[in-house]
Design goal:
The complex is a heterodimer of chains A (179) and B (297).
Chain A (H helix, E strand, L loop, with lengths): L9 H27 L14 H12 L6 H15 L5 H14 L2 H4 L4 H25 L6 H29 L7
Helix pairs in contact in A: 1-2, 1-3, 1-7, 2-4, 2-7, 3-4, 4-6, 6-7
Chain B lengths: L9 H32 L1 H40 L1 H36 L8 E10 L7 E4 L12 E3 L4 E8 L4 E5 L6 E6 L5 E6 L5 E4 L12 E4 L11 E7 L6 E4 L8 E5 L24
Antiparallel strand pairs in B: 1-2, 1-12, 2-5, 3-4, 3-12, 4-5, 6-7, 6-9, 7-8, 8-11, 9-10, 10-11
The chains are: A mainly alpha (179), B alpha+beta (297).
């Protein structure tokens, strides 16, 4: 910022703050969605989708500059802490996925929604398999069926997650916000 | 070096950013691996960090889960209303059966108390730490756990058993200042020493992550049958004896399957208990000095 803060108009101040807010918005909303995974929905199977993964998947592919691996790592760390999973498990995996997906923008660009959904299948499957394998390695046993339930629920929740994050993306990337 | 910047150009600034990005990635990789190793090497410290992380979300969850609790209450009410007639008939039959059973039980209970007094049996009393509200569950995780709104400020410590009015829920595994995590009996990592009431035979019960439990190490000569009540045996000294844990529902499988006695699908309040037998204090050092051994020649 070249001008002193008190010499800026209110619109310019808003635009300045908006630039930072823009970078924090995806991380904030994905973290908020993680809270849903903690609500007392008492179902015997883990039907709650991996909302953190879906968020990172969306932002890394459609707006990768707003989802650097560091932000994905922070989201994963929060997920590990809140959900009682081995610390660093989701953090490492989400950062890795954000990095890999960030480089695939050309594959995604100008493709229909169904392509994105189909493209998500191997990523979500790999993510669940890694989570399952690493949890076993770290002494937290979990059932393979449970992993499959969550895989299915995550894939079914993909359209809703895309709809939700696309709404946020439209606001975040709206040039009118920055005047 | 080709990547080093020349003064002030945008291109060189981009190169620095690129380098910083790559360095950041490597640092993240090391951090992630380091944290995964810490899970194995320093579980107690990691548990404390988790406990404090729960404190950040528990108050919000208490507020956020109110609609879910309300919805659950409405569904319960609707269910009770729809099944009122059949339930009343079933309960009337049950009351008649229990009246008969109660007379026998009262006489056996009196006899039991007399015999224990004669034998000077020392039994620790079950001590309650407090009644807590259940505000969260981890249906989105592979770990079956619940979050309660009480932590070390309310004398909650790791390992304490948790139950509701119907039976055992699980045990405290992580503690924060104002919240704690309870590992449910339905989790595959949970193990509870139990006793089958009908046969009196000991066994172990484990979760299977699908809402049901598995009865392990049942004596093949005295098998369990469907409808058997399974209670805590008190072995190990953590869980108090005779707390209902499960009812056997299927014995056709290799390991008998049981349904939890506690209503885990609608937990709202729970009771945290102290471990049945407190850990023994370390031996007090004797004031009499031990004789010194003569040095070896």
């Amino acid at each position: 910022m070249s001008e002193p803060w008190n010499q800026l108009s209110s619109e310019e101040k808003f635009a300045f703050v908006g630039r930072f807010w823009r970078y924090l918005a995806p991380t904030f909303f994905i973290s908020l969605s993680l809270g849903l995974m903690l609500l007392p929905v008492w179902i015997p199977v883990p039907i709650m989708p991996q909302l953190g993964l879906l968020g990172v998947l969306y932002w890394s592919t459609y707006s990768f500059n707003l989802m650097p691996p560091g932000a994905a790592f922070a989201i994963g760390l929060l997920q590990d802490l809140w959900l009682g999973q081995p610390l660093g498990l989701n953090a490492s995996l989400l950062a890795l996925f954000a990095w890999v997906l960030g480089g695939q923008f050309n594959v995604y660009a100008s493709r229909p929604f169904h392509f994105g959904w189909l493209f998500a299948v191997p990523f979500v499957t790999l993510y669940e398999l890694f989570t399952w394998g690493l949890s076993h390695l770290l002494g937290q046993t979990c059932d393979l069926h449970q992993m499959l339930w969550q895989l299915v629920s995550t894939l079914l929740a993909y359209p809703f997650a895309v709809w939700f994050h696309a709404k946020i993306q439209r606001v975040v990337t709206d040039p009118l916000i920055y005047l | 070096m080709a990547l080093l910047p020349t003064s002030g150009s945008k291109r060189s600034r981009d190169r620095w950013w690129w380098l910083a990005g790559r360095f950041g990635l490597v640092a993240l990789a090391f951090l992630g691996i380091g944290l995964l190793i810490l899970n194995k090497t320093m579980p107690a410290s990691i548990g404390r960090v988790r406990g404090h992380a729960l404190d950040t979300v528990a108050p919000a969850l208490d507020w956020l889960s109110a609609p879910v609790r309300g919805l659950s209450a409405i569904m319960d009410w609707g269910n009770s209303y729809l099944n009122a007639r059949s339930k009343a008939q079933r309960l009337s039959a049950e009351v008649a059966r229990l009246h008969l059973l109660n007379e026998t039980n009262q006489s056996l209970n009196r006899e039991n108390i007399r015999l224990k007094a004669l034998l000077h049996v020392a039994e620790p009393a079950v001590q309650i730490v407090g009644t807590v509200r259940v505000v969260g569950a981890t249906s989105g995780s592979m770990l079956q756990s619940a979050l309660i709104t009480a932590g070390y400020k309310n004398n909650i410590v790791q390992g304490q058993p948790v139950r509701d009015s119907d039976g055992l829920i699980g045990q405290v595994i992580e503690v924060g200042a104002i919240s704690a995590r309870v590992l449910l009996v339905t989790d595959t990592n949970s193990r509870v020493p139990v006793r089958i009431v009908r046969t009196g035979m000991p066994a172990m019960i484990s979760g299977s992550n699908n809402g049901l439990l598995k009865l392990l190490y049942v004596d093949p000569d005295v098998p369990a049958v469907e409808g058997d009540l399974v209670v805590t045996s008190g072995q190990g000294g953590l869980f108090p004896p005779n707390v209902p844990v499960a009812v056997v529902t299927n014995v056709k499988t290799q390991e008998p399957v049981a349904r939890p006695a506690a209503r885990l699908s609608g937990l709202d309040y729970a009771l945290v208990l102290k471990p049945y037998v407190e850990a023994l204090p370390p031996p007090v050092p004797t004031s009499v000095p031990l004789p010194k051994l003569a040095p070896a020649p």
